[in-house]
Amino acid sequence: MNAKGFTLNDDFGIHGQLAFRDAGDGFIVIDVDNRLCTASIAMQGAHLMSWNPKGKQPVIWMSPVATLAQGKSIRGGVPICWPWFGAHATEASFSGHGFARTVAWDVIHTAALDDGSTAIHFRIAEINKAQWPYEAPVEMHMVVGTALEMELITENHGEETITVGDALHTYFCVSDVSKINIRGLNGCDYLDKVGPTTRRTQQGDISFVSEVDRIYFDQGQDVVIEDPGMRRNIRIKKRSSHSTIVWNPWIEKCLNMGDFGSDDGYLGMVCVESANAAEDVVQLAPGDTHRLWVCYSIEK
Asked: Whole-model pTM?
């Protein structure tokens, strides 16, 4: 490991619980192994790549051919979309889903908590001023244990109101996406982005028989992924998130994307993203703070 890695272990490592390693070419990964779970987080993008509660099957999906490289997005895990979701509102050349997921973040705090979980706090180190000319930094606070808590915190230190779009673009492991259901969105209006963009209203639970790419609006209640094949439910709690995105690329798009690991790689994953997107973006006044918080837990 390079000198930076050694410094990080000296400053923020937790003996027997949290360590930094160089995954190649200076790409630093944090490995957590406490009595409740294992997890791995890339410092680039403060990108959580795995979270496995002890004795449970993996919860977070990562492509088996995901690339860990400086400045490149990672297929899977929990990419942070910030300070906008999707394409930029006015500049098509700007990074899709913002730039936070492909730039350096600093670790600012780690702690072994009394309940056996581990806390890790990050602050973005690189802000693209050409794309985000505001005094509005962002932090990511994680607690990994039996549950996974993530909080994305944006502070407006400037003198004007700014518009923030954000999302935790979480890829969940499932046994077979064609055999799961997602509940908690019944009655919600959504923007259907497959084919001609159309606004619809959800009727009942969500099931998958083709590509799904939807932004659900004005939505803050719990969402549950019901997975009979894994004999578990994944519960998603959230605060200060008014949108939920549900996405699975299905067959044709999976083949065209080329980084799912196999032709049927789409079957093992579903994205349920807690967000503030499209018409649900946040207007952040000077001096205000926006906290997008989620908690993922496993239920039988």
From this structure: 0.96
Count of H-run helices and E-run strands, the chain: 2, 22
CA distance 256 to 32: 34
Q: Alpha-carbon distance 92 to 287, whole Å?
A: 29
> Which of 273, 279, 290, 299 is labelled catalytic?
273
User: In sequence order, what DSSP letters do the residues of 230-296 get, joined into one string?
Assistant: TTEEEEEEEES--EEEEEE-HHHHHHHH--SSSTTGGGGEEEEEEEE-GGG-EEE-TT-EEEEEEEE
Mark the ranges of the chain whose per-residue pLDDT is less than 50.
none
Residue pair 36/116 in contact by the 8 Å Cβ criterion: yes
**According to the model, what pLDDT value does residue 300 have?**
81
At residue 71, the 3 state secondary structure works out as coil
Q: Are 50 and 67 in contact (CB under 8 A)?
A: no
271's CB contacts (< 8 A; 6+ apart) are: 169, 170, 171, 172, 245, 246, 247, 248
Which sequence spans correspond to the domains of the chain? 3-299
Beta bridge partners of 236: 223, 296
Q: Which of 97, 169, 242, 290 is labelled catalytic?
A: 169
Asked if 145 and 118 touch (Cβ cutoff 8 Å), the reply is yes
Question: Is 77 in contact with 178 (CB distance < 8 Å)?
Answer: no
DSSP structural state of residue 150: E
Q: Is the dihedral of CA 251, 86, 198, 185 positive or negative?
A: positive
Q: Is 290 a catalytic residue?
A: no
Structure tokens at 85: 């979701």
The verdict on whether 88 is a catalytic residue reads no
What CATH number matches the domain at 3-299, 2.60.40.1470, 2.70.98.10, 3.30.1020.10, 3.30.930.10? Answer: 2.70.98.10
Contact 160, 247 (CB under 8 A): no
